[in-house]
């Protein structure tokens, strides 16, 4: 993991954090914005689909997609604790052999991954400093749909991000968060041939879902799923 932010992610999201998140997920299910994202993805059907869950955390999205009949996919995360926890939960649920687990900086690893029907980034864009690079690595891998959850945007979001980063500097912690503007995010994804079909904003989080028009072209080498690692 060559990017400094990845080292910060590893420290920020350790085993204790992952275990707390998993306990919360088992009690309450996915967070509200994640439920919105899953609902929007399900409108096109997820049964038999493949996915790439970027920054998938403890695996909430993939657990829900697999419960709805998804074929399998890839979980990419820069925090080893999240990958371990997600894999353990998938083993308990009986489908770990259908998930490929990829560690490290997604931008560096994206070229090694096959395309998938669905690509998700749930509260990931705000953790990566180079938003265009992240989305430009993710978008070509989405054969059908790309969905993400990001901060609402605007002055309030920038203030919140500034406050969090101020506290992180006081703690001498390398992890930072970023307030990328939704319009800039949309522009990057549209430049890769994706069209916005769903948007819902709460007080803190905004959910965006983009689809690839049927005329969109995917490299032949991207077709299919390579199976679990």
Can you characterise this structure?
- With 229 residues, this protein is α/β, with parallel strands linked by helices.
- It is 41% helix and 21% strand.
- It contains 9 helices and 7 strands, in the order H-H-H-E-H-E-H-E-H-E-H-E-H-H-E-E.
- It has a 7-stranded mixed sheet, with helices on both faces.
- Strand 4 (116-122), helix 7 and strand 5 form a beta-alpha-beta unit.
- Helix 2 packs parallel to helix 5 (80-93).
- The chain starts with a helix and ends in an 18-residue tail after the last strand.
- The model is unreliable at 1-8 and 216-229 (pLDDT under 50).
* SSE series: HHHEHEHEHEHEHHEE
The average pLDDT score comes to 84
- Count the helices. How many? 9
Work out the helicity level: 40-55%
Oligomer: single chain
Give the CA-CA distance, first to last residue.
19 Å
Q: What gross morphology would you assign?
A: globular
- Order of neighbouring strands in the sheet with most strands: 3-2-1-4-5-7-6
Structural class determined from secondary elements: alpha/beta
Number of strands: 7
* Main sheet: strands, sense, barrel: 7 strands, mixed
What layout of secondary structure does this protein have?
Blueprint: H1 4-12, H2 15-28, H3 32-42, E1 50-54, H4 60-67, E2 72-77, H5 80-93, E3 99-103, H6 106-109, E4 116-122, H7 131-138, E5 142-151, H8 155-170, H9 182-191, E6 195-201, E7 205-211
Parallel strand pairs: 1-2, 1-4, 2-3, 4-5
Antiparallel strand pairs: 5-7, 6-7
Helix pairs in contact: 2-5
